[in-house]
Amino acid sequence: MNAPLLEVRSLSVAFPRGPRGFLGRGRQVLHAVSECSLTVDRGQSLGLVGESGSGKSTLARAIVGLVKPAAGAVLLDGVDLAALRGSARKAARGRVQMLHQDPFASLDPRRTALESVIEPLAIHRRFTRRERQLRALALLDAVGLEPLQAARFPHEFSGGQRQRIALARALALEPELVVLDEPTSALDVSVQAQVVGLLQELQQRFRLSYLFISHDLALVRHLCPRVSVLYAGRVVESAPTADLFGAPRHPYSRLLLSSAPTADPRLERERQRIEPPHEVRATAGSKAGAVDVRSGCAFHPRCLERDKVPGERCRRELPPLVGRGEHVSACFLPPPAEGRALGSAGADPPSRGPSGLSPSTGSGRTAGR
Ligand SMILES: Nc1ncnc2c1ncn2[C@@H]1O[C@H](COP(=O)(O)OP(=O)(O)OP(=O)(O)O)[C@@H](O)[C@H]1O
Ligand SMILES: [Mg+2]
Predict the structure, then answer these.
(1) Which residue CA neighbors atom 3 of ligand 1 most closely?
(2) Is the separation of the CB atoms in 79 and 4 below 8 Å?
(3) Rounded to whole angstroms, how far apart are CA atoms 303 and 356?
(4) Fewest CB within 10 A of the end CB: N or C in the chain?
């Protein structure tokens, strides 16, 4: 079997929180990402879903090198990116690019569309000046912009067009993997489908691999053959998309799917709302380094199925990610019987969901935004 293009191995990212204590002791740490592992195959897409604050963007930023992981590794074609130095590191970093949710934030307002696409080529000292211009024009053409538009500034474009420029810029260094962090969620609904179509077309044309982060479960289902579910910074389930949507194993995945918007207004009204995870904190600064005071499954306070596991095990022990073949989940409960599985995202009444959170307990930020 071929090695995956991207392998994320037990990656953790922690952020210091709150005031620094005496001699740096007692400072709290937010574990934004904990021991996350995933793979993306060449030319394929992996969907990454999870509610707001679950660590999707932090994981993405760690993969592209924008935040430093506390532990774990990011391997490209089996090579640990952290072990690379100098030009080898720069070249490897060019192979992985990121497209952000808000193209306004990723484009320099003082640069024209053409200059924005040329910039990464200039930084990496690729090609001559003239060649860079021609390549940038070809990329703008590939994302559907006219040559005449190349001399315009970001504010002169619509949101969808700006995202196209950001995409051309991300593709300038001919990456193999593009991390798409909610690439369409800031766009008008009418434009979203066009950008999704363009992403699919470019994936075929340039044989790109995507790590596709989205709140839109229907979109993930449509675009990604495999999906990983993140909860409170941990991967709680990974599976081929059809398996996850057809027979989600983790109680949180079932809750997430039952929370997706439905076509039925009655169900839509009743659907469960998901609170962002409680901040999971640890105390840092002891002689032994960071002391992790977390225990158990992060989802257990919200899980109505926890009582089915004897001895309060969910509160005390962290369930490992286990399963058969490509479908793995981190829950002590045995996988549900086939008949119990949800037929499709949001197609089941909320009463069948495992968490049973009452609608009034939601914080207002739902996964299906
Ligand atoms: N630079 C940072 N410094 C401190 N805390 C951070 C930083 N970036 C993210 N966090 C925290 O890490 C956690 C995960 O945030 P992250 O943005 O990765 O979530 P997300 O899943 O992308 O959410 P959303 O769906 O809203 O984009 C949050 O609690 C967030 O407040
Ligand atoms: Mg995010």
Answers:
(1) 15
(2) no
(3) 8
(4) N
Contact 341, 246 (CB under 8 A): yes
Residue with CA at minimum distance from ligand 1 atom 7: 15
Ligand 1 near 30 CB (within 6 A): yes
Overall number of domains in the chain: 1
Amino acid present at 224: C
Find the angle CA(362)-CA(367)-CA(369) to the nearest 5 degrees.
100
Residue 217 lies in a domain: yes
Q: How far apart are CA 108 and CA 113, in angstroms?
A: 9
Q: Is 52 in the pocket of ligand 1 (CB under 6 A)?
A: yes
What span, in angstroms and rounded, lies between the C-alpha atoms of 125 and 110?
A: 21
Within a domain: residue 54? yes
Distance separating alpha carbons of residues 118 and 169, to the nearest angstrom: 7
Q: Burial letters for 202-231: b for 16+ Cβ neighbours within 10 Å, e otherwise? A: bbeeeebbbbbbbbbbebbbebbebbbbbb
Q: What is the CATH number of the domain that holds 55?
A: 3.40.50.300
Nearest-atom number in ligand 1 for the CA of 51 is: 25
Q: Is residue 268 part of a domain?
A: no
Strand intervals (E) in 6-118: 6-17, 27-40, 45-49, 71-76, 79-80, 96-99
- Residue-wise pLDDT for 318-336, tens only, equals 999 999 889 999 999 987 6
Q: Which atom of ligand 1 is nearest to the CA of 50?
A: 21
pLDDT digits (tens, 9 = 90+) for 284-306: 333 323 334 467 999 999 998 99
Output the residue whose Cα is nearest ligand 1's atom 28: 53
Sort strands 281-286 and 27-40 into parallel, antiparallel or unpaired. antiparallel
Closest by CA to 335, choosing from 347, 319, 349, 346, is 319
| Position 200 in a domain | yes
40 DSSP β-pair partners: 6
Looking at residue 280, its amino acid is V
Print burial letters for 165-175: b (CB count within 10 Å at least 16), e (below 16).
Answer: bbbbbbbbbeb
Please determine, for residue 351, whether its predicted confidence score (pLDDT) is greater than 50. no
